[in-house]
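Figure S7 source data.
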Amino acid sequence: MRPYDVILKKRNGKKLSKEEMKFMVMGFVNGEVPDYQMAAFLMAVYFKHMDDEERYDLTEIMSSSGDTIDLSQIPGVKVDKHSTGGVGDKTTLVLAPMVASCGLPVAKMSGRGLGHTGGTVDKLESIPGFQTALTEEKFMDNVKHHGIAIVGQTANLAPADKKIYALRDVTATIDEISLIASSIMSKKLAAGADGIVLDVKVGSGAFMKDISSATDLARAMVDIGKRHGKETVALLTDMDKPLGLTVGNALEVEEVIETLKGKGPKDLEDLCVELGAQMLRIGRISPDLDSARKTLRESIESGKALDKFRELVEIQGGNPGVTDDLSILKISSKTHEVLSPTDGYVYSMDAEKIGIASMTLGAGRARKEDKIDLSVGIKLLKKTGDRVQKGEALCVLYYNDDGKVNDSIESILKAYTLKDVKPKHVKLVHGVVQ
Ligand code: URA
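Tokens for the predicted uracil complex:
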């Protein structure tokens, strides 16, 4: 077999066998297939796509290319959750302690942020002392004894995906459904859970800009999960505006704590309840979604979810006092209000531009190796549907570097569309694929 023949076959729109795919993927990982041939292969997939069987095979090859986590020593059904990435998406930080406080074991591996979307690991590291790199033994031990652990993904989890993703990133081949689905699912399968809840974001701040392509991605991932014997469900959720009112690491953790106290933004709490309900149902903690939703709301009202968050912070080396004293979080003291240029309603928001404005301040990385500033970001005072007067603040920028503020303001002003008419209400959950 030669890489040339596999590229040609895919370029001509033919279905690949598992052997052919394995030859390309593992050859690339081992350095036998050069970058230029893998890049050509990825571009062929980009234009000719893959069917369900090919996606299943690609996922299988990538998930078994490195370490796999065995969660069988942890009693109960283990359910993982994954978001395709959004702006202000801090759901894992709220959801994990919520479901863990209801008895579902949470053994979570999360990523760092890249581009305009944030990552759970960065957010957690804005809590002074919090360790996201635990040994596997400590990770398991924490889940066994405390029901929760959230760590950074180990270097050797699905290394084939890691290497291919880096090449996709520089060859304009990220946004192809089979490649995204197999990339995400390879890591979820290697992470060892029994069931998977997927939050597929749709809208201006997401990979998938419309419901139809988001549905295709959700179907592809659910199909891969099921073929691997994992109960999998995907929720299609709104990312036409940022989730909650904060974007940026420490600011988002502040909002997480407020949400766990029952004082957070409604969209964030509601989304966590919807995703959590699916997790409790799959984990056999609740018999149906309605009772799961009730259990989750009670976990906030009773303070159980906040207690579990405090416990998580403590067992991973962070300062647990943060739940009572938010000033422990290092949030920049330099602020700038971005004022509305006219009267009107916020008719729509371009969430990606808000994410870019936050990244410009230093809260996100343009490249993987960039260092980020955990203390900066944006607090939104007005979101889609809100009335605003000329000169009233749309949002507050938290910054350290004066030289970055003007570019950030420019992106914010482009993100807001103001009109005289009130926009139609957009649903938080557009649909469920299972
Ligand atoms: N997230 C991933 O992990 N992989 C993709 O391909 C896209 C988003």
